[in-house]
Amino acid sequence: MIGIGIIGAGHFGAVHARAITEVEGLEIVAVCREDQQQAEVFAREYGGKAYSDWQVLLEDPDVDAVVIATPHHLHKEIALGAARAGKHILLEKPMAPSVADCDEIAHAVSEAGVQFMVGHVMHFALPCLMAKEIIRSGAIGLPAVGTSGMIKLWMEGNRRPWHLHRETGGGMLMTAGIHALDRLVWLMGQDVVGVSAMMGSHFHQQQADDTALIGLRFSDGAIGQVQSIGYRDGGSSFAMDLVCERGALRIDFSSGLWLGRNGTFEKIPDSLEPEWMHRAVVREWEAMCTAILDQAAPPVSADDARQILAIIEAAYRANDERAEVEIAYDR
Protein backbone atom coordinates (compact mmCIF):
# COMPACT_ATOMS: atom_id res chain seq x y z
CA MET A 1 0.00 0.00 0.00
CA ILE A 2 1.30 3.45 -0.98
CA GLY A 3 0.76 6.00 1.79
CA ILE A 4 -0.35 9.40 0.48
CA GLY A 5 0.04 12.73 2.25
CA ILE A 6 -2.17 15.63 1.12
CA ILE A 7 -0.39 18.97 1.51
CA GLY A 8 -3.06 21.60 1.00
CA ALA A 9 -6.11 19.95 2.54
CA GLY A 10 -8.56 22.49 1.20
CA HIS A 11 -10.86 22.82 -1.81
CA PHE A 12 -8.82 20.89 -4.38
CA GLY A 13 -7.14 18.75 -1.77
CA ALA A 14 -10.61 17.29 -1.20
CA VAL A 15 -10.94 16.59 -4.94
CA HIS A 16 -7.74 14.57 -4.73
CA ALA A 17 -8.85 12.84 -1.53
CA ARG A 18 -12.07 11.58 -3.11
CA ALA A 19 -10.11 10.26 -6.10
CA ILE A 20 -7.40 8.59 -4.00
CA THR A 21 -9.99 6.59 -2.08
CA GLU A 22 -11.08 4.96 -5.36
CA VAL A 23 -7.63 3.80 -6.47
CA GLU A 24 -6.52 0.36 -5.37
CA GLY A 25 -3.11 0.40 -3.72
CA LEU A 26 -3.36 3.96 -2.34
CA GLU A 27 -4.21 5.08 1.18
CA ILE A 28 -4.45 8.57 2.68
CA VAL A 29 -2.18 8.49 5.74
CA ALA A 30 -1.62 12.21 6.40
CA VAL A 31 -3.17 15.58 5.59
CA CYS A 32 -1.88 19.10 6.16
CA ARG A 33 -3.50 22.51 6.47
CA GLU A 34 -2.22 25.57 8.34
CA ASP A 35 -5.31 25.58 10.55
CA GLN A 36 -4.91 22.47 12.74
CA GLN A 37 -8.62 22.32 13.54
CA GLN A 38 -9.58 22.38 9.86
CA ALA A 39 -6.91 19.76 9.14
CA GLU A 40 -8.49 17.51 11.75
CA VAL A 41 -11.94 17.99 10.22
CA PHE A 42 -10.50 17.04 6.82
CA ALA A 43 -8.75 13.98 8.31
CA ARG A 44 -11.95 12.78 9.97
CA GLU A 45 -13.69 12.82 6.60
CA TYR A 46 -10.94 11.35 4.42
CA GLY A 47 -8.54 9.61 6.79
CA GLY A 48 -4.94 10.08 7.89
CA LYS A 49 -3.14 12.02 10.59
CA ALA A 50 -3.73 15.77 10.72
CA TYR A 51 -0.77 18.18 10.52
CA SER A 52 -0.51 21.97 10.44
CA ASP A 53 3.13 21.98 9.25
CA TRP A 54 4.00 20.36 5.92
CA GLN A 55 7.62 19.88 6.99
CA VAL A 56 6.49 17.73 9.90
CA LEU A 57 4.23 15.75 7.57
CA LEU A 58 7.26 14.99 5.39
CA GLU A 59 8.95 13.41 8.40
CA ASP A 60 6.11 10.89 8.74
CA PRO A 61 7.53 7.47 7.72
CA ASP A 62 4.08 6.29 6.61
CA VAL A 63 4.04 8.90 3.83
CA ASP A 64 5.44 7.49 0.58
CA ALA A 65 4.09 10.15 -1.79
CA VAL A 66 2.46 13.56 -1.53
CA VAL A 67 0.07 15.65 -3.51
CA ILE A 68 0.82 19.36 -3.27
CA ALA A 69 -2.37 21.41 -3.70
CA THR A 70 -1.30 24.68 -2.11
CA PRO A 71 -1.23 28.27 -3.41
CA HIS A 72 0.98 28.42 -6.49
CA HIS A 73 3.79 30.48 -4.96
CA LEU A 74 4.36 27.77 -2.34
CA HIS A 75 4.84 24.95 -4.85
CA LYS A 76 8.60 25.24 -5.21
CA GLU A 77 9.52 25.25 -1.53
CA ILE A 78 7.27 22.32 -0.70
CA ALA A 79 8.27 20.30 -3.79
CA LEU A 80 11.95 20.78 -2.97
CA GLY A 81 11.31 19.66 0.60
CA ALA A 82 9.36 16.61 -0.55
CA ALA A 83 12.11 15.61 -2.97
CA ARG A 84 14.76 15.94 -0.25
CA ALA A 85 12.58 13.78 1.99
CA GLY A 86 12.45 11.08 -0.71
CA LYS A 87 8.71 11.37 -1.30
CA HIS A 88 7.13 10.83 -4.70
CA ILE A 89 5.26 13.96 -5.82
CA LEU A 90 2.06 14.78 -7.65
CA LEU A 91 2.22 18.56 -7.91
CA GLU A 92 -0.90 20.48 -8.86
CA LYS A 93 -0.70 22.78 -11.84
CA PRO A 94 0.93 25.16 -12.47
CA MET A 95 4.24 23.49 -11.73
CA ALA A 96 5.41 26.83 -10.30
CA PRO A 97 4.90 30.54 -11.07
CA SER A 98 8.12 30.81 -13.12
CA VAL A 99 10.32 28.77 -15.43
CA ALA A 100 13.26 29.30 -13.07
CA ASP A 101 11.27 27.71 -10.24
CA CYS A 102 10.29 24.83 -12.54
CA ASP A 103 13.95 24.20 -13.33
CA GLU A 104 14.82 24.05 -9.62
CA ILE A 105 12.04 21.54 -8.98
CA ALA A 106 13.02 19.40 -11.96
CA HIS A 107 16.64 19.28 -10.82
CA ALA A 108 15.66 18.38 -7.26
CA VAL A 109 13.36 15.49 -8.20
CA SER A 110 15.93 14.17 -10.66
CA GLU A 111 18.65 14.25 -8.01
CA ALA A 112 16.37 12.56 -5.47
CA GLY A 113 15.25 9.85 -7.89
CA VAL A 114 11.58 10.21 -6.93
CA GLN A 115 8.61 9.93 -9.27
CA PHE A 116 7.21 13.32 -10.21
CA MET A 117 4.09 14.32 -12.12
CA VAL A 118 2.28 17.61 -12.57
CA GLY A 119 -1.51 17.50 -12.31
CA HIS A 120 -2.51 18.75 -15.75
CA VAL A 121 -5.87 17.04 -15.56
CA MET A 122 -6.82 17.48 -19.23
CA HIS A 123 -4.41 14.66 -20.08
CA PHE A 124 -6.79 12.33 -18.24
CA ALA A 125 -10.22 13.69 -19.28
CA LEU A 126 -12.11 11.22 -21.47
CA PRO A 127 -12.89 13.50 -24.48
CA CYS A 128 -9.25 14.61 -24.61
CA LEU A 129 -7.94 11.04 -24.35
CA MET A 130 -10.21 9.95 -27.20
CA ALA A 131 -9.16 12.92 -29.33
CA LYS A 132 -5.49 12.07 -28.73
CA GLU A 133 -6.08 8.49 -29.87
CA ILE A 134 -7.77 9.64 -33.09
CA ILE A 135 -4.84 11.95 -33.84
CA ARG A 136 -2.32 9.19 -33.08
CA SER A 137 -4.18 6.82 -35.42
CA GLY A 138 -3.52 9.12 -38.37
CA ALA A 139 -7.14 8.87 -39.49
CA ILE A 140 -7.55 12.62 -39.98
CA GLY A 141 -3.91 13.63 -40.38
CA LEU A 142 -1.95 16.08 -38.26
CA PRO A 143 -3.49 19.11 -36.54
CA ALA A 144 -2.92 22.33 -38.49
CA VAL A 145 -5.01 24.91 -36.61
CA GLY A 146 -6.36 24.77 -33.07
CA THR A 147 -8.46 26.98 -30.82
CA SER A 148 -9.03 26.30 -27.13
CA GLY A 149 -10.95 28.32 -24.59
CA MET A 150 -11.71 28.59 -20.91
CA ILE A 151 -14.46 31.13 -20.30
CA LYS A 152 -15.93 31.06 -16.82
CA LEU A 153 -16.79 32.94 -13.64
CA TRP A 154 -13.56 34.20 -12.08
CA MET A 155 -14.64 35.16 -8.56
CA GLU A 156 -15.70 31.72 -7.41
CA GLY A 157 -16.08 30.98 -3.71
CA ASN A 158 -12.59 29.48 -3.38
CA ARG A 159 -10.74 32.58 -4.63
CA ARG A 160 -8.22 34.02 -2.16
CA PRO A 161 -6.14 37.25 -2.13
CA TRP A 162 -3.12 35.47 -3.65
CA HIS A 163 -5.21 34.70 -6.76
CA LEU A 164 -5.26 38.42 -7.60
CA HIS A 165 -1.50 39.01 -7.95
CA ARG A 166 0.90 37.78 -10.59
CA GLU A 167 3.85 37.49 -8.20
CA THR A 168 1.99 34.83 -6.20
CA GLY A 169 1.04 32.90 -9.32
CA GLY A 170 -2.46 34.34 -9.52
CA GLY A 171 -4.62 35.41 -12.42
CA MET A 172 -7.15 33.66 -14.62
CA LEU A 173 -4.54 32.34 -17.04
CA MET A 174 -2.32 30.70 -14.43
CA THR A 175 -5.27 29.41 -12.41
CA ALA A 176 -7.86 28.23 -14.95
CA GLY A 177 -6.99 29.28 -18.50
CA ILE A 178 -3.87 27.13 -18.18
CA HIS A 179 -6.12 24.10 -18.76
CA ALA A 180 -7.12 25.40 -22.19
CA LEU A 181 -3.48 26.15 -23.02
CA ASP A 182 -2.14 22.80 -21.85
CA ARG A 183 -4.88 20.87 -23.64
CA LEU A 184 -4.16 22.59 -26.95
CA VAL A 185 -0.37 22.17 -26.71
CA TRP A 186 -0.73 18.48 -25.78
CA LEU A 187 -3.16 17.65 -28.58
CA MET A 188 -1.26 19.64 -31.21
CA GLY A 189 1.78 17.53 -30.34
CA GLN A 190 4.51 20.01 -31.23
CA ASP A 191 6.68 22.51 -29.37
CA VAL A 192 5.51 26.11 -29.29
CA VAL A 193 8.22 28.35 -30.76
CA GLY A 194 6.42 31.71 -30.94
CA VAL A 195 3.88 33.46 -28.70
CA SER A 196 1.81 36.61 -29.16
CA ALA A 197 -0.72 37.88 -26.64
CA MET A 198 -3.20 40.53 -25.58
CA MET A 199 -4.17 40.39 -21.91
CA GLY A 200 -5.28 42.40 -18.93
CA SER A 201 -7.89 42.77 -16.22
CA HIS A 202 -11.12 43.72 -17.98
CA PHE A 203 -13.78 42.71 -15.46
CA HIS A 204 -12.17 43.02 -12.00
CA GLN A 205 -9.98 45.41 -10.02
CA GLN A 206 -6.90 43.22 -9.61
CA GLN A 207 -3.21 43.25 -10.51
CA ALA A 208 -3.24 39.85 -12.26
CA ASP A 209 -5.04 39.13 -15.52
CA ASP A 210 -8.64 38.03 -15.85
CA THR A 211 -8.52 38.00 -19.67
CA ALA A 212 -6.02 36.77 -22.25
CA LEU A 213 -6.01 35.99 -25.95
CA ILE A 214 -2.84 34.10 -26.88
CA GLY A 215 -1.52 33.21 -30.31
CA LEU A 216 0.76 30.18 -30.67
CA ARG A 217 3.18 29.26 -33.46
CA PHE A 218 4.26 25.61 -33.43
CA SER A 219 7.55 24.14 -34.60
CA ASP A 220 5.92 22.30 -37.52
CA GLY A 221 4.20 25.46 -38.80
CA ALA A 222 0.80 24.82 -37.18
CA ILE A 223 -0.91 27.70 -35.38
CA GLY A 224 -3.24 28.01 -32.42
CA GLN A 225 -5.17 30.40 -30.23
CA VAL A 226 -6.13 30.25 -26.56
CA GLN A 227 -8.90 32.26 -24.91
CA SER A 228 -8.69 32.64 -21.12
CA ILE A 229 -11.57 34.79 -19.85
CA GLY A 230 -12.73 35.10 -16.26
CA TYR A 231 -15.93 37.07 -16.45
CA ARG A 232 -17.93 38.88 -13.76
CA ASP A 233 -21.17 37.46 -15.15
CA GLY A 234 -21.79 35.33 -18.23
CA GLY A 235 -22.00 31.75 -19.41
CA SER A 236 -19.30 29.12 -19.18
CA SER A 237 -17.56 27.57 -22.17
CA PHE A 238 -14.71 25.06 -22.22
CA ALA A 239 -14.67 24.07 -25.87
CA MET A 240 -11.92 23.57 -28.41
CA ASP A 241 -11.58 22.85 -32.12
CA LEU A 242 -8.71 21.12 -33.89
CA VAL A 243 -8.71 21.38 -37.68
CA CYS A 244 -6.51 18.62 -39.04
CA GLU A 245 -5.33 17.72 -42.53
CA ARG A 246 -8.32 15.46 -43.31
CA GLY A 247 -10.93 16.27 -40.72
CA ALA A 248 -11.66 18.15 -37.52
CA LEU A 249 -12.24 17.43 -33.85
CA ARG A 250 -14.40 19.41 -31.44
CA ILE A 251 -14.28 18.91 -27.69
CA ASP A 252 -17.23 20.24 -25.71
CA PHE A 253 -17.40 19.30 -22.05
CA SER A 254 -21.18 19.63 -22.08
CA SER A 255 -21.59 17.00 -24.81
CA GLY A 256 -18.33 15.18 -25.55
CA LEU A 257 -16.12 14.69 -28.60
CA TRP A 258 -17.27 15.39 -32.15
CA LEU A 259 -15.66 14.37 -35.45
CA GLY A 260 -16.00 16.76 -38.39
CA ARG A 261 -15.96 15.46 -41.96
CA ASN A 262 -17.73 16.38 -45.20
CA GLY A 263 -19.05 19.62 -43.75
CA THR A 264 -20.77 18.22 -40.65
CA PHE A 265 -19.93 17.10 -37.11
CA GLU A 266 -20.94 13.74 -35.71
CA LYS A 267 -20.68 12.89 -32.03
CA ILE A 268 -18.26 10.14 -31.01
CA PRO A 269 -20.28 7.66 -28.89
CA ASP A 270 -19.52 7.40 -25.16
CA SER A 271 -17.16 10.37 -25.23
CA LEU A 272 -18.52 12.10 -22.15
CA GLU A 273 -18.91 10.65 -18.68
CA PRO A 274 -20.74 11.89 -15.58
CA GLU A 275 -18.49 13.68 -13.09
CA TRP A 276 -15.79 13.93 -15.74
CA MET A 277 -13.43 15.93 -13.53
CA HIS A 278 -13.56 13.36 -10.75
CA ARG A 279 -13.00 10.51 -13.20
CA ALA A 280 -10.03 12.38 -14.71
CA VAL A 281 -8.41 12.86 -11.29
CA VAL A 282 -8.94 9.15 -10.55
CA ARG A 283 -7.08 8.33 -13.79
CA GLU A 284 -4.37 10.78 -12.76
CA TRP A 285 -3.84 8.86 -9.52
CA GLU A 286 -3.98 5.51 -11.29
CA ALA A 287 -1.16 6.74 -13.53
CA MET A 288 0.80 7.98 -10.53
CA CYS A 289 0.35 4.67 -8.73
CA THR A 290 1.61 2.78 -11.80
CA ALA A 291 4.62 5.09 -12.11
CA ILE A 292 5.59 4.47 -8.47
CA LEU A 293 5.08 0.70 -8.52
CA ASP A 294 6.63 0.07 -11.95
CA GLN A 295 9.23 2.88 -11.81
CA ALA A 296 7.80 4.09 -15.12
CA ALA A 297 7.73 7.60 -16.51
CA PRO A 298 4.53 9.45 -15.51
CA PRO A 299 2.34 10.72 -18.39
CA VAL A 300 2.88 14.43 -17.57
CA SER A 301 6.58 15.16 -17.16
CA ALA A 302 8.44 18.09 -15.70
CA ASP A 303 9.40 19.09 -19.26
CA ASP A 304 5.73 19.10 -20.31
CA ALA A 305 4.76 21.33 -17.41
CA ARG A 306 7.79 23.59 -17.85
CA GLN A 307 6.84 24.29 -21.48
CA ILE A 308 3.43 25.56 -20.36
CA LEU A 309 5.11 27.99 -17.95
CA ALA A 310 7.51 29.08 -20.68
CA ILE A 311 4.53 29.88 -22.91
CA ILE A 312 2.80 31.85 -20.14
CA GLU A 313 5.97 33.83 -19.39
CA ALA A 314 6.32 34.54 -23.12
CA ALA A 315 2.66 35.65 -23.23
CA TYR A 316 3.23 38.18 -20.43
CA ARG A 317 6.24 39.53 -22.28
CA ALA A 318 4.48 39.54 -25.66
CA ASN A 319 1.63 41.56 -24.19
CA ASP A 320 4.02 44.07 -22.63
CA GLU A 321 6.12 44.42 -25.79
CA ARG A 322 3.23 44.10 -28.26
CA ALA A 323 5.34 41.69 -30.30
CA GLU A 324 5.69 37.96 -30.91
CA VAL A 325 8.15 36.35 -28.51
CA GLU A 326 10.25 33.36 -29.52
CA ILE A 327 10.76 30.32 -27.26
CA ALA A 328 14.02 28.40 -27.56
CA TYR A 329 14.57 24.83 -26.34
CA ASP A 330 17.81 23.43 -24.97
CA ARG A 331 17.35 19.72 -25.75
Tell the overall outline: globular
Strand content: 25-35%
**Discrete helix count:** 9
- Extract low-pLDDT stretches: none
Helix coverage percent? 25-40%
CATH architecture of the largest domain: 2-Layer Sandwich
Mean pLDDT: 97
CATH topology of the largest domain: Dihydrodipicolinate Reductase, domain 2
Distance between the termini: 37 Å
Quick tags:
single chain; 331 residues; alpha/beta; Rossmann fold; Dihydrodipicolinate Reductase, domain 2; nine-stranded mixed sheet; six-stranded parallel sheet; 35% helix; globular
Protein model, in words:
The protein is an alpha/beta fold. The protein folds into two domains: 2-120 and 281-292, NAD(P)-binding Rossmann-like Domain (Rossmann fold, 3-Layer(aba) Sandwich); 123-274 and 308-326, Dihydrodipicolinate Reductase, domain 2 (2-Layer Sandwich). Helices cover 35% and strands 27% of the residues. The strands form two sheets. A nine-stranded mixed sheet has the order 14-13-12-11-7-10-9-8-15. Helix 1 (11-20) packs across helix 8 (276-294), helix 4 (75-84) packs parallel to helix 5 and helix 5 (99-112) runs antiparallel to helix 9 (302-321). It is globular.
Q: What's the arrangement of secondary structure elements?
A:
Blueprint lengths: L1 E6 L3 H10 L5 E7 L3 H11 L2 E3 L2 H4 L7 E4 L6 H10 L3 E5 L6 H14 L3 E4 L6 H12 L5 E11 L18 H17 L3 E9 L10 E8 L4 E9 L8 E5 L2 E6 L3 E6 L2 E4 L8 H19 L7 H20 L3 E2 L5
Parallel strand pairs: 1-2, 1-4, 2-3, 4-5, 5-6, 7-10
Antiparallel strand pairs: 7-11, 8-9, 8-15, 9-10, 11-12, 12-13, 13-14
